[in-house]
Amino acid sequence: MNSRLLKGYIMVILSAVIYGCMPLMAKYIYADGSNAMTLVFLRNLLAVPTLAIMAYGKDKTLKIFPKRIPYISLLALLGCCLTPLLLFSSYVYIPSGTSTVLHFVYPALVVVGGIIIGERLKATSIISVVLCIVGISMFYDTGAHIDVKGVILAILSGVVFATYVLMLTRYKHRGEVGERFTLYIALASGVIMLIFCIASGSLALPETILGWVLCFVFAQTVTAIAVVLFQKGTFAIGGERASILSTLEPITSVIIGTLIFSEPMTLRTVVGTLLVLSASVVITVRGKE
């Protein structure tokens, strides 16, 4: 395996682990008076200065061609605005675990989308997707109440994110990808989410200094680090592999829930974890082909 692929795998895995920690961080922020929509807005806005410093330090410029702004804004709308809005909205109707299961149909959708746009299908891709779907389904609560609205919202979040991944892999100007690219994604996302928050009357800023500190740390961790890692990793290994490896995100959430909140680790979740890890191994080994 060449160094480029190895770095790509490591980046995507690290981003998945960070994303898996989001529920833990969000739990404390919500307790301070904020809400999901505001947090999506703040996680983008508060990361802009950091990303600007990082981008200028690396590229010695913050310039980006104006003609690329519409495409970047569309990526921001899909990946950093609509996806979390749909997913968080589904929590109102169905348990978050069920929402996660339905959201993670997106690796399969990325594979299907890749076939549609002309990418070659491999047996390892099919095996990995099947292992992911079966593994993630193990996290489904069989006794949970199912509301059709929640199901639709969660599935739509997966569809939208799959579209984002496919569009990201088709972005031609790869020399810009990284901190500078993410800077404009975050800036566009922050503006879009501010409009959403004001229009819906859901803007709920933190009530204490500690709440603001937590939001700042959340923004730097998720947007300035995880988003950058995922984007760079996706360009290095492709959207299909990145999507499958990102299923390590719910596993991280389950482990954190068990270690920190003493949530029970059932046989189903153990089996699901092993299946998803197997899918990650299969797709990683395929990198040697």
Any overview of this molecule?
- It is built from 14 helices and no strands.
- The chain is an all-alpha fold.
- The protein has one domain.
- The protein is globular, with a radius of gyration of 18 Å.
- The model has no long low-confidence stretch (mean pLDDT 83).
Secondary-structure topology with pairs:
Layout (H helix, E strand, L loop, with lengths): L2 H18 L1 H9 L5 H10 L2 H12 L9 H22 L5 H8 L2 H11 L6 H15 L10 H22 L9 H22 L8 H29 L1 H7 L2 H13 L6 H19 L4
Low-confidence segments, given as residue ranges, are none
Give the beta-strand count: 0
| Gyration radius, rounded | 18 Å
Per DSSP, the total helix count is 14
Q: Span between N and C termini?
A: 8 Å
Largest sheet, strands/sense/barrel? none
Strand content: under 5%
From N to C, what is the helix and strand string? HHHHHHHHHHHHHH
How would you sum up the global shape?
A: globular
Helix content: over 70%
**Assembly level:** single chain
Mean pLDDT over the full residue set = 83
Domains, number: 1
User: Strand pairing plus helix content: what structural class?
Assistant: mainly alpha
